Structure formats: C-alpha cells, structure tokens
Amino acid sequence: MSNLLKYISVAIFLGSTLWSCSDDRYIIDPNGDPIASRSSVRAQIAGNHEIGDEMLYNIRPYIFNGEDNSTRGNFYGIPNSVIFPGHYIDMSMRPGTWDITLVTSPTSFYRNPTLLQSTPGVEDLQDVLEQPSHGANSARARMYRHRGVNNVLPDFKDFYTAIVKGVEVKNDPEGYVNEYESPIYFLRNYCKVRVILDWGQELKEEANAQKVWLSNIPEALTWQGGLYPNAQNPDVSPYPMETKAWDVRYKCQSEPDGEGNTKPVIESANELIYYIPAHRGEDADTDQPVDTALHKININFALTALDGTPVSKTDVPVNLTPRPNTELVLKVKYEKRQLAVFADIIPWVEENAQDASLGARHVKVDKAEIGLAWKDTLHVDCDVDFTVAKAASCAWLTVNKLNDHDYELVANTNTYVPGSPRSSYVEVIAGNYTKRINVTQRPERGTIKAHLTGSTDKTFWLSPVHNTKNITVECVGGDWKTLESTALDRSYTGPAGVTDNIPVTRKPDVDIFFDEFDEAYGLQPVVFMNTKTLDTDTVFVDNLFIGADDDVLEIEQPTSGTLQVVTSHISVYGGNKDVTIISYPSFIQSVTYNLSTHQFTFLSKSNANGDDQWGDIVIGHKSDPDYRVSIPIDQSIRVDIPEFDFFVIKFTWAASDVDIKCGFVDNPTTVNYRDIVYNTVLSSQLNNQWVGWSQGNSTSLSAPMGGMTVLKWGGDATGGQGETVFFNAKDLNKYPWPGGREADGKRAQPNSGNLMPRVVKFMCAAGWYTNGASGTITCTIYCYLGGSMQQSGTNFNNVGDGSQVYYQAKGINVAAGKTKPKGSYLRFCFIEYDRKKHTAAVTWDGSTIIS
Fold this sequence. Notes:
Layout: E1 10-11, E2 26-28, E3 34-36, E4 40-44, H1 53-57, E5 60-65, E6 75-79, E7 82-83, E8 88-92, E9 96-104, H2 113-116, H3 125-128, E10 142-145, E11 160-169, E12 177-179, E13 184-185, E14 187-188, E15 190-199, E16 210-215, E17 220-222, E18 244-246, E19 249-252, E20 265-268, E21 272-277, E22 298-304, E23 310-317, E24 326-335, E25 338-347, E26 363-365, E27 369-372, E28 375-382, E29 386-390, E30 397-401, E31 406-411, E32 422-430, E33 433-441, E34 448-452, E35 459-462, E36 468-475, E37 480-482, E38 493-494, E39 497-505, H4 517-520, E40 522-530, E41 536-543, E42 545-548, E43 553-555, E44 562-567, E45 570-573, E46 579-583, E47 588-594, E48 599-605, E49 613-621, E50 624-635, E51 646-652, E52 658-664, E53 670-673, E54 676-679, E55 698-701, E56 708-713, E57 723-728, H5 729-732, E58 759-768, E59 775-785, E60 788-792, E61 795-799, E62 803-814, E63 825-834, E64 839-844, E65 849-850
Parallel strand pairs: 1-13, 4-12, 15-24, 27-33, 35-41, 43-50
Antiparallel strand pairs: 2-3, 2-6, 4-8, 5-6, 5-9, 7-8, 9-11, 10-17, 11-14, 15-21, 16-18, 16-22, 19-20, 22-23, 24-25, 26-28, 28-31, 29-32, 30-31, 32-33, 34-36, 36-39, 37-38, 37-40, 40-41, 42-45, 44-48, 46-49, 47-48, 49-50, 51-57, 51-59, 52-58, 53-54, 55-56, 56-57, 58-63, 59-62, 60-61, 63-64, ...
C-alpha cells in the first residue's frame, strides 16, 4: 500500500464497524457476468469504533460513467464486493473514470410484501431501489418511489445519498489500491416539516378535533439524488400525507368573557412532524446551492372551533420550498375564524455538520429539553472542548457560564406575554458538531394567589359610585404586578409575601371608548403575575355600566300620533344586567326594557310643528341601586325625505316667464345645546343669500374649511323649460355641529369657529315675471344618494352610481298681480335638513307673499 495514503471522510453521522464476509473483487456488467478485476478503491472512515451498524450495512454503491463524453452519468453497474476491513471501505472497481452514487439509511428499508410482491421479512435497502437500466442517465433515472398505503402517503424513510464524481481507477495486477482524495458527504434526501400551532385560542380542546395533513408531495427521487423527473415539475403523489392532530390544551377553561361564556387561553399543542422527499441538487453540498426545487407543497386543515363549528381549509400553498437536510417550520395562527401559515427554513442542526468528527459525539446533557419560567441550569459533559450558546435571534434568553460543565439560562420576565409560552434553543458546540436543546419559557404553578380581602371570593362588582374594593395578594419568591386591563384604572404592583387591603379601582367611564365596552364592562379578568416565576392568578371584576354607544340617543319622530322605536344603542353590563326606568322626557309616552334581548322600547310622540326635541332619560342599575345614569335623548325632526346627498328644486309652468328666489333662512348664529352655548356664526354666510334671476348664482361658505359652494342656481329660463336650484348637502356636512365631532374625531368645541347648526333651514319661492300672468307653477323636489351632480342647460342631473331616493311635485296656483311688481314672490315651502341623519322635513306654504 502506498505510504501516501489519502482517505475519504464519509460524513454519515451514524455508524459502526461492519465486516464483509466476502473477499471477491468484481463488478457485475450489464449482462450479469462477473468481470475479473484486481483494482479497487479504498477509503478510510473517519471516527472511532462507535459507528452504527445499520448505516454501514445499508450503504449501496452504484456506478455511472465518469468520462467527459456524451454518455457521462450513464449507469454501468454495481460493485458486488464492498468490504470494511478495520476502518476502511474497499469497493472493487473496473479501471476507468467513474461517477459513484452511494445510498444508505440509518434504518432498514424493505419491500412492502403487498405492494411490491417481494418475500416477506427481507430487509434490505437495495430491495426498494429501482436499479436503472444499462445506459440510463443518473439525473433522469428513478431511484426510489415513495408509495402510498390505503390511499395515504406515510412519512418518508430516512434516505441519504453521496455523489462522488470523477473517481479514477487504475488497473494493477499486483493489487494496487486506488485512493480517492476528496471527501464524500452523505446528505439527507428529505426534509423534516414541523407544523406548530402558534396561536389558536378559539379552537376546541378535544382529542383529534384539530386535524392537519400535507398534500402535493413529490413521490420519487433520481439516481442523482434529485426529484424525479426534475426539480421544477416532479411526479406528485395522488395521495395526501397521513392526517395528524394537534392535542390542544388550555391553561384555563373557565375565564368568563363578560357574556357568561368561557374564553380558554391556549397553553400548548403538540408539534406535528412530517418527513417528505426533497431535491438534492448538483451543488447541494455548497453554502448557497443554486440547483434547488421550485415545487411547493400544500397544507390542509380540518379544525373545530370552540362552539363546534367546523373550519375547513384545503390546499393552502406553503410559500417556501422544502430543502434536503433542513427543517421546514410552519407556524399556524388561527384567530377569529381566520387561518394564517408562516413558513421558515432552518438547518437540521443536530446532524448538519457534514464534516463533523464523529469522535466529538460524546456530548451528554442532563436535560433533553428545558422548560423554565425565570432560570435553569444545563449540565454538559463532553470529551472535547465545547461552548454553549443561545440562538442568535433569541433576545429574551441569556446564557451564563458557571463553571466548566454548568451553564445558567436566564429568561427575561418583563417581555413575557402570559398565556403565550415562547420557545427557542441553545446549542452545545463541540468542534464542528452541534447539539441543540430546545428551551421554552413557561410559568411555574402555585406561586401567587389573589382574592378579596377578608374573603376567598375571586369575583366582585364595581360601579361608578362604588368603584373600589380591597384585594389580598399572596406571592412567593418574587414581586407581583397586574397585567394591563381595561377593567381597572391602572396597573398595580407589590412585593413578595402577603399584602392585604390593596385598593383596586374601576376605570372611569370617561376613559372608555365604545369599541372597548366589551373589554371594560361586565365580568372581566384581572391577572396578577409573579414577576419571577411568571405564574398568574386571576380575579374577576364585574364592572356595572349603563350608557349609550353615542353621545346622544336618537329617537325617530312620528309624522303623527305615536311611534314605537326599539333600540340596542343603550348598553347594560354587569350584575343581573337589569335596570329600573326612573324618568324620561315628555315627548316619550313610555319606556320598557327587555332583559332577554337587552333592548329598550320607546313610544315616541309626535311634535305638532315637526321640530326636534331633547331631554334626558334616567336609568338605574338593579345590582347597585345607588348607580343611576342620565342619558341625553333627542327626538329628531320629522322625516319626510330619507337619507340623501343632493337635492334639486325645480319650478315648471305652462307659459310666460317665472323667476325664483331660494336660499337659507333663520339659521341661528348661536345654539344652546344641552345648556352649552355653541358659536355657529358661519350661518351668517348662508342666511338670506338668495339665488335666482337678479339675486345671485350661488351661495358659498368660506374659511375655515377652504370654501364650499353649497347652493347653485341653474340659470334664467323664460320659455317654460323650468328653473332649478341645486343643494350640495354632502359638502355642507363637512362642517361639524354642536354635540358632534371634528374631522379628526375630536369633540367639536363651543368656539371652534367652523360650526354650523345641525339642522339648517332652506326656503323656496317663485313668482310670475310676466306682467298680468297667472296660473299653476309646479314645484318638484328630487333627492339623490351617491354619484355626483352635473349641470345640463338650466337643469342638474345625477351621474355615476347614485340613485334617486325621493320625488315630490306640488302645483300651486299663483293669481295675476300677486307677484308683480318685480321683487314679489309666493313662498312655496320650507325644507329643514338634519345634517347628522342626512334626512329632511318639508313644510308646504303656498299662501305667503314675500319680497
């Protein structure tokens, strides 16, 4: 043997010495006849005597043409003699230049007796490989097909390949051993897929209720180790991978949600692990391989919500492509009936160091995984130098070396979110071998208790008039704090030990927005947390509340008599959720409350003149007789015209010439709204600003809103075609009103300078211009919702996606001499427009002469 013996490092991660019982050295040619040869390739296996038997026993070499010609990569044959003398591997080879594909597995492969019709009990990797025909190319010949069983695809087997190219074998009749210099790497031909339920509070806790499976899985590999027939469009199994289920567990199944229902908080769900074939490209051994697959798999869900409703979502594409020798991590979030999948690819770290010294595998740790609340210690034994480090992206964990074998792991408790255990890992690095230990931060139990002082009760009510109760906290080993809660006025903190008479106070109503009602009122949890152990205990505050979801409760006014109005705009929370009606305004005939539907019913009485009216309704909470609430209630103006954005008033007649006079009148420059005087001086820019012939063409509002034309005349019409006025209600509504809000959502202030009255008044009048003319003039009101207005001649038309929501025509006879001389007009009607509700009331006249 040459004294310049090189060796081949076979990085198979598992293995042990295995001696062959054959000394024959020959290769089988395509006809099956042995061809005598005294040449061989020898390689030394790195490591010691702890190489696993299964891995070595299953190594199978296949020989392909390695010459640089048109048949490069074509299959030639199989070395029949592969022996392992000592720590060497010898393969009998015919002289020439060869490409070698080595295949192995740490577990035995065997043919399924039913599917592949082989002898039961035969366990051999070679039995499940599809040997290519002579001359078949390694990159296009199928090596292995992953077969479904009973219409289900099981997990892929452990499959490794090593591709060795350009091995030169020289013939030496004296038995010269060819030595191949470059190292050989075995690489997994599969990817581990980890499916993690990252968030799913609304899923049912029931065995096999939350099911997951994968589909669109490649089913075959080539002799080059890639997907068959190619990386872009591989053969896909018609069967889905076997269904697996999350075992969902919650840390609490009795947290009320304020409506008498439970609101579980998820604590854990098992990871679902799949093994699927992956593409081993030509450059798979490099740091940044380019020859990778484009094919993506799908994930499928059949879940069950808390209320038993099935939630199904199939064929969801995973946005990252599986890679060999890696973990594809799929984190699933389920919230409010919405599913989201987030994918990441990380190294298969435990056995990813392909050139690792197998002698460094004497790494022993005292914990296979670590669960901690604050801190823990990891003990490591290793026969070579090592270090312990956390994952680079993990900001919440610190690793401190205590001595040569012990490392302290300290988790940040300030950034921990209760109910959401978080995971990362630490790595023991010995040479170029890495062992990973998963670390999960989760709370310890039984180190904090909270309850009413002088009682064991953990539930109590608060109201605005009785807004404080005393709490006792018993905390072991660390300080405590309350987590953020809309039920209390602030967060509370305290020391370790027993602390009595801690006054906790209800959050003031003034700080609560309507969209927070469900979180602030009714039965709400307040969580006390031990800041060292992260353990929590929960008390439940039943916050009593009565209030409207707007500043003012709007009640519709009937056109006559009474009208029953049912509303859900008054909310009642906490206790028995029942109320006592104490008083209400005179324009309300009666008020009743339905405890089962939580709705109020008002019997509203009409106002003779149709104007709006306001007052207060006083309601008491039956769970706290001292708690009474006064709610502003407005009875809006009578509604003749439903919601609209624009209206057009058109006057038409049979003959002669008519002129019109239209504009805003009697709009106050100050408004006393609920005993507060609001400055609405902008009304002066509208009042008595007439449009019509010899009047004006338009009426506009100037600063501070930048100027808006709110009224426009269509022009003089002398031949009976009609004269029109267009009112742009949509632009007028950009100005706030007393009791309303500015454009930025803030409440309008009494002297903000851009206020207009909520209800604006508009007058329409017309008269004969022609001396001595008389007859019927018809006034028609057109109202539109949506779209935009466009002038055509003396008319205005609605264009776009708008629709006409109101139409009324009224003819009034105007006698000769009544509207002459010039400047006299007959008043046809008043229109009062409610800018909050976008509705209007019409009052017809037809007898009053104005000038």
